[in-house]
Every structure is written in C-alpha cells, then in structure tokens.
Amino acid sequence: MNFKMMGRFIAQILSIEGFFMIPALCISLYCGDSMAVKGFLWTILLIIGCVFLLMMICRGAPSAFYAKEGLVCVGASWIVLSAIGCLPFWISREIPSYVDAFFEIVSGFTTTGASIVPAVEDLSKGILYWRSFSHWLGGMGVLVFLLAFTGGKGQGFTMHLLRAESPGPSVGKLVPKMRTTAAILYVIYIVITLLNIVFLLLGGMTLFEAVCHAFGTAGTGGFGVKNDSLASYSPYLQNVTTVFMILFGVNFSCYYLLLIKEWKSVFKDEEVRLYFGIILASIALIAWNTRDLYGSLEETIRHTAFQVGSIITTTGYATVDFDLWPSFSKTILLCLMVVGACAGSTGGGLKVARLLLLLKGVRRNIRRMLNPRRMEVVRNNGSVVSETVLDNTNAYLSAYVVIIFLVFLVISLDGFSVATNFSAVLCTFNNIGPGLEAVGPTCNFAAFSDLSKLVLCWAMLAGRLEIFPMLVLFSRNTWRNR
Amino acid sequence: MNIIIAGDGKVGSMLTRQLSTEGHNITVIDSNAKVLEATIERYDVIAVHGNCASMDVLMQAGVKDADLLIAATSEDEVNLLCCTTAHALNPKLHTIGRIRNPEYTEQIYRMRNVFGLSMVINPENQTATEIDRLLKYPGFLRRDTFAKGRTEIVELRVSSGSKLCNVRLMDLRNIVRCQVLVCAVLRDGNAIAPKGDFVLREGDRVFFTALSQNLTTLLKNLDILTRRVRNVTICGGGRISYYLASRLKRSGISSRIIERDYERCQELCELLPDAEIIHGDITDQDLLESEGMSMSDALVTLTGIDEMNMIVSLYAASQGVPQVITKLSHTSNLNLIDNLSLGSVVCPRDLVCNNIVRYVRAMENQTGAAISVHTIADGQVEALEFLVDEHTRNCGKSLKEIKLKPNILLVSISHGATTEIPNGDSVFQKGDTVVVVDTNSKEIIRQLNDIFA
Question: Are residue B242 and residue B212 in the same domain, yes or no?
C-alpha cells in the first residue's frame, strides 16, 4: 500500500472541503450566528492543521498507484471527509451528538438526505447552506472535482479513482484526458445547477432557499430548508424541481453527447429510454391508484410526478406524505428506490443500466437453458457487453442484496416495525432519504440507536461509492503487503 | 486482349484456363515458382515470378501494355496494393481485385476510384447472393438472369411423380400455361439441345428460359410447392454464412448458424445480432435434430469441407427438408454428384470466374462480343447475351427463315422494355438484345454472327 500517496490525496481533498466551508462561514458571519461561525472557523483551522501535517508526513511519496490504492483511497477519503465535515454541526452545538452530526453529513455527502434533525427551520443559515452544499459536492464526487480542477498531472491511475467514485457498471472517459473529462462533467453539472437556481428564483423563491434547493436537486440529495420539504411551495416551484430532479438522474455523458450534437445516440440510448419509460409508467400507475386522494387531476399528477421523480432519482424531496398513500403506490416507490437513476448521474440505487444488463442476462440464461448449445452475447445500444462487465454486475447485485439484509438485521435491534426498518435500509443504502412509517417523509432517523446510525452511515457510503470501495476496507487482502 | 492474372490459386488457374482458350494473351504472376511451372506446362501463357504488388514485377509482366489486371491472391491487402500500383502505372488499365474481408466492403465500394479498382469481386458475397436468390424461389436448383433481370434461365429436376415426367416438349405448353422454352436438358451427365419431340424422363435436369414475371406461374402450374422460406439452417459459420445471414435478415428470413469453433461463434454473435448462433458439430445428427433441422424451410451447407457439406445435405434431403443448398469448392466430380440429391449446388469459384469472364467479354463488347456469359448445366452449356448491331446479319427476318448452327437456340429477344420468349415468327432488330444458348461446347461463339449457319 502506498500510504504516503493516499495521505497526499486526503490532504488535497480536505483542503477542497476547507475551501468550500468559507462561503458557509461568510453566511454565518453575515447572519451573526456566533456559534456557527465558531464551528466553521475551528473546523477550517483544524483542516489547515491536518493538511500541513499530512503534507509534511507524506513528502516524497512514490508514485506507484494501482487499483487497490484507488479503491482504498476513495473509501478512506469519503470517511475522512465526513468525519471532518460534520464538525461544524457538532462544535456549533446545533446537532449536539457527534454521531448524529456524522450521520447528517454522511447523509449529505452521499446525497441521501436522511436527516436526524427534528426541526430543520431551527438551524442557522450557515449550517443549512453547508448541509445542502454537501449534497452538491458529494453528488458529482469530491475526487472527480479534485481531478477536474486541481490535480492535472494524473496518469493512468486516475481512472481507478473515477471508476471507484462514479456510479455505473462501466465507466468511460468522454475525451482522452481524464482532467478534461472530469472538467466537462463538472461544467455540465454547474450549468444545470445554475439553470435550476434561475428557474427557482423566477418562481419567487429567495436566493438562499433557491441555492439550497438547487444543490439538493443537483446532487439528488434531498435536504431542504423547511420541515415539510417542498410541500409549502407553489405548484410552479414543485414542477420545476420535478423536472430538474429527473434531469439530474440522466447519465451526464448524454448531456455531453447533446453538446456535441449527437442527438440520435441520446434518443436511442436504451438506458435513457428505460429510465423515462419507468418514470412514465410509475406516474401513470400511482396516479391511477391515488386518484381519489387529491382534489384535481392536475394535483394528482403533480404530486405523483414529484414523488416518482424524487424517489427514482434518489433525491428524497417530498410534497406530500406518501406514507399515507395506498400500499400499491408505496410498493411501487419501494421498487423505484431499488432501481435508482441512470449510471453516470448523481443519483444512487442499483442504476437503470445495471437493471437492463441484469434483465438481458436473465433473458439470455433462459434461452441458454432451453437450448444449451446456443451462443449469444448481451448487447447494449447495439454494442457487445463484455462478460467481465456482466460478471461484475452480477457480483454487484449479490453484494447489494447481502448488504441490504445484513444492515436490515442489525438495525432491527432497535425494535421498529419491519416496514420502517426495511425502508430505512433501502432509502439509506440507495441514497434516497425518506422511507416509510417511522422514517417517512414527515419523520426522521433521530430515533435510531447510535449503532444503527453508524451502520446506516456505512450503508449510505457503500451505496454512494458503489459498494466495493467500502467493502475492500474490510478485506484482509487490502491491508496485506504485496 | 492482354490480361495479367496475379495469383495463381484456385480462381487464378481457372481463369487462366478459360481466358487463354478464348484467345487472350495471359501473363500470370505468382510468388510460388512451382505453381507457375505447372501452369506454363499446361496452358499457353507466360509467367512472372515475384510479388505482384511490387512495381518491378508488374512492369516485368508488361503492365504498360496490358488491358486488364485481375488480382486474385489470397491476401486482400496485396490485391488492393497490386491494383492501385498497376492502375497508377497504366491509367487505362482495367483492374479487378478480389476483396473478401467483410470489414472492407463498405470502404472499397466508396473508394473504388481511390484504389483504382474497376471491379471488386468478393467470392463469398457473390455466393451468398446466389444462395439468397435461390432461397427466394425454392424449387429452382439454379437461376441465371439476363436482359437486365427480365429473362431467366432456371433449372429444375424432374423428380418421380412430377408433372413433367414423360412429357413431350411439344405438349409442355399445355401444362405450364405460360411462355417458356426448354433450352437444354442434362441427362446422365450429358447436355442435350432438345427438339419438340423430345420426351422428358425422371432424373433429367431441365433448363427453362422464362420471363422473370412468369416464374411463379411456372412453379405453380408444375405443382411445385413454393412455400416462402421463413427460417434457414446454415451449417458452418464462415464468411459466406455471415453474408448470407445478413442478406436473409434484410428479407425477413431468420437464420440459425451452426458452427464448430467456439471463438468464431462468439464473433458471429457479435456480428449478427439477429441470427441464432449454435455451437456444435454438424456431423452430429442428434445436434441437427435437436436444433430443429427438419423443421426449417431450408438448409444450406457452407463448411470448408466438401465431403461434409455433401453428407449433411444428403441427410437433410433424406429427412425431408424442403430446400437444400450445398456449397462445393471443387466441381471436378460433378458427374458423380449429379445422381445424389444434394439440392442446388453452388461453387464460389465458378461464380467468380463466370463473373470475371463476363467482364472480359463486356470489355470486348465494342467488337460485338457477348454482353454476358453464363455457363450452365455443369459447364457444358453456355448462355450468351448479345447486342444486335449494324453488322448483325438476318436483322428483320423471322426466325423460321433463319438457319442456325446445330445445337444453338435463340431463347429470348429484348426490344426496349419488352422481352419475349421467341417463336418462329419472332424477329430481332438492331438495338435489341438476344440470349443464345449453345449446347455444342466445341465451338466458341464470339460474335452474334457466329450462330448463323
């Protein structure tokens, strides 16, 4: 293991985090929240200290950096990021327990949006900003940011980092240079976020709320600034948020293809088609199922579309308490939680691309059972999917299912109902946020024990980082010297 | 004409034989001295030893004075380079290159001019085209097209119980109820130019001339079932199979390819998303049965081994597969094969050679030579298409007034957009194209005037 190199990476990531705390500090200074100012100031100072220390220790690091280092580096840096990122909450005493603060920031960075804060409106502005900003930074990935705007000297190993951090079964660069690829992704990300802010401002939202909500939407996170999420906003604002949530759930390389005018390949992309197909079908089914709940058709469609968009993109905003919906609708939402957004988006879940590959793999296996000598390859968008990718997808599904049940088992110790626990696991592991019953849209995760919270934190990180970076941390092979 | 043939392989040597007997000056280039020696001993040609793509060797072969170069070595790239180089040395030269790699097809077609190619031949693709044509009209063993696709010579086998059994040709019209002309009959391996009192027997292979639009009527009136082919089993997964499957897909026919080599199966899977690829050995009868061979509308054997193709075809025919097509690389034992029920037999080498010979004759067309030439009836009969020009004798006379040489038939006359199967009262005019069938293979028909006695 090349610990020195990893130390340098972590130092760089911490300095990015420290840098992004400055706006939050300014907001706190502007609002005059002395506790929050203290929290951010101390944290920034601590980060500066840590960065210097790490840089001193890790001087002259050898440049050997392989897949293993990449995976461990991603896992470790996200843990460190969260451990430090939660300090402002804790120091400012706005979230008194460190575990709660850690849960809150992990939920932020992993774009989950599950909260332990009972009354969001009581938090100070600077803290709220930092909470929402953690979504934005975590959505596209801190390491990707590092690659895009700082590193630059990265050689082949940067691929290991991107692969470990960006969601989806197969990761490809858009352009030959990793740095340019990462920069393109971030530029697209920033532009759509700004568009979202503009649309929200046009709807009469205040700048602060617009920015916070846009961050939550962009990262498909789900932290709002109000207790009732988006329920009290105008229908226009809700619809704008629906559209942008769904847009952020699309593979970002599609936007790149649109930019270079490859319209056809975007509209023919099987994953995008399936994604929109699932969304439309779910909206139709739930709207039919909840037709008697709301006054008008417009209202039914608006709420349904919002909830479906929010769940499939794993954002987790809510305009209504969907826990009160009929169980068929709730079950559809649970299924959508598992499906998740497109690969290469900021959303979580199993990813539509994986679902597509799994279904195609199943179809092939059925045919193979009927006709053992028949040969067939699995195709995606017309090109052949390699067997390695299929194997990885299958392994991913296995790990996914096992983890869901293990976490489910552990948090059952707290004695909540099965529906609560199961939806809690699904909505943290898939980075959604609100679940059903005791963790529904109007409730929060504060009631869980510290053990459950830590396990759920791990599940959130595992879900965000595509499981394996968090699993390798527990593998003996990782820590053994080569 | 001065013709250079680069590559003295299967196709090269067949072309050498054919073209040198037609009186052209042939220069053969090959890098194998032994093969060349054998060629010189057999045919009246000169040989140049060396790499046909090199400028020196081409100059030595007299590329400056040549009219045509045929590059038929085993390597596509060498053929291409050879044609390009030769064309650069002599811009008036016609070049024919054999390019067989499917990956190049598109670019060669688009960049013919860049490469200096006058014509591209792809034996595998042509074979696939031919098989595809046969599958369109199940029932015919072979089809040859003339007069821009308006006239065809089709081959039928008189099976036991067929309506054609023991029928005098004079009475044929009452059975088929459309305009047809029997231009040749292959009986016991010998081609016969039949007269009106000729009686058809079981086992005869009959060559009909008919208008393309009448083919369906012909089959219907002969009670030959022509169910549209919907699924085809292809044995062997070579290049022909690839071309064939992609062609069949375009006409909505599903294909199932059985291939022995695992790697090749995988390649085919990637190349042909819609075909069913089966990994297995076709000599295994259980496999053929379990893959539903007897349920398929047609079976095509395309492996590289003639014997295997023959055996599988025989088996398929015995199991009642409606249409069987066999690919044979060597057609030297055709007499023997004639008695076996192999269905239609296609030979890539013959197809290619016919094609090239046609091109050569078309080049000579300025001097009144045939527009196209098809060899039918196991090479014993030639069908030639001519343009009637001002030098042609007997223009405007009815056919019964004209005396033709023995064993020569005039089977089709195209005047502008109309084509007819001629009878005694038919006439041809300047500007018409006519199809002549020559069953007397001893004499070569070079010009239309050669057919008149």
Answer: no
